[in-house]
Amino acid sequence: MIDYRSDTVTRPSKEMLEKMHQAPVGDDVFMEDPSINTLEKYISEMFGMEAGLFCPSGTMTNQVAIKTHTQAGDEVICEELSHVYQYEGGGIAFNAGCSVKLLQGNRGRLTAAQVLASINPEDVHKPISRLISLENTTNRGGGACYDFNEFISIKEVAKANNLQLHLDGARLFNAIVHKKENPLDYGKVFDSISICLSKGLGAPVGSVLIGSSAFIKKARRWRKVLGGGMRQAGSLAAACIYALENNIDRLIIDHTNALLIRDALKNKPFVASVLEVETNIVIANITGNQTAHQIAQRLKEKGVLAMAMSPTQIRFVTHLDITSDNIQDTIEIIKQL
Ligand SMILES: *Cc1c(COP(=O)(O)O)cnc(C)c1O
Questions:
Q1: Position 2 in a domain
Q2: Strands 51-55 and 74-79, how do they pair?
Q3: Can you give the pLDDT of all 337 residues of the chain as single tens digits?
Q4: How far is the CA of 58 from the centre of ligand 1 (A)?
């Protein structure tokens, strides 16, 4: 099967497994796991942040960040398609006791003007607007990237109104590679960033939350409360370090592959349109008498797995386990469909 359901389906390579096998380990709740300490330092320095916190999932890094930035009763501003709202099991309410101000953006992206207009006035009736949570690249937005200037404008709004700014960077390296950005610029704008190593970078498990030392100290407590304090997890961190050292620049291959899938799809009679492809996600809008689920089923019968996101949308995500032969086969299969 050629699996495009998500970039989470990658398996650790032989070289990565060797690094995991050799990793020095210790008890990370005591902060004595050398591999985890190295990973946290490596990635926080890459972004010019003071400290990092290794977590088992991107959901946990996001939820720990939201909990750390807020008090119960505060409000979190985010886009309506954002992962923190759509796909984290209601965690903003459950873990942080916060309400959410949902904004309708453009493919998952907000503007500074929208954020500014959504901040509550000083009024006992209103929850206190405390945190803005952005996503780059956007997942439901089909891998769209922000223009960095928008981040700078949103930061100004946040600063002027005493709000914190969090970035869900599950696929941040896809954006950085695509836009040729400097990670240090992100560290200057955001108060916290969550980065997944288990997506396009190909590690089996792991996300890191980065921020100031004081923020990460508080976040470490909430990670423990949520049950995310791991012990000899250094082998997992070693896989993440391998991913950072070897798998960032190659993301560009995934982006090129996504464009090839788009080209194969775009003239099919059952495809009304394909969202503009910027990174590694291709979303096609389906038309005619077949549903996206039926098309996904027909693809599956021919050896290709894609995800029906709704009756009228099908998604393909490229990743490092997709070879150029896989792409050629997929193009042929789509042609024959
Ligand atoms: C995948 C993803 C996450 C985290 O997911 P986990 O499965 O919990 O690691 C967070 N945000 C976005 C935008 C994602 O795509």
A1: no
A2: unpaired
A3: 999 999 999 999 999 999 999 999 999 999 999 999 999 999 999 999 999 999 999 999 999 999 999 999 999 999 999 999 999 999 999 999 999 999 999 999 999 999 999 999 999 999 999 999 999 999 999 999 999 999 999 999 999 999 999 999 999 999 999 999 999 999 999 999 999 999 999 999 999 999 999 999 999 999 999 999 999 999 999 999 999 999 999 999 999 999 999 999 999 999 999 999 999 999 999 999 999 999 999 999 999 999 999 999 999 999 999 999 999 999 999 999 9
A4: 5
Q: Which of 190, 222, 246 is the last residue of a domain?
A: 246
The answer to whether residue 315 is domain-embedded is yes
Residues in contact with ligand 1 by the CB-under-6-Å rule are 57-59, 62, 83, 135, 139, 168, 170, 196, 198-199, 207
Q: pTM for this structure?
A: 0.97
Question: What is the Å distance from ligand 1's center to 322 Cα?
Answer: 20
What φ, ψ does residue 231 adopt, rounded to 5°?
-100, -105
Are 236 and 260 in a shared domain? Answer: no
Tell me which residue of 257, 258, 260, 266 sits closest to 287, measured CA to CA.
266
The residue segments making up the domain with residue 45 are: 11-246
**Same domain flag for 163 and 286:** no
Tokens standing for residue 95? 């873990």
Is 205 in the same domain as 187? yes
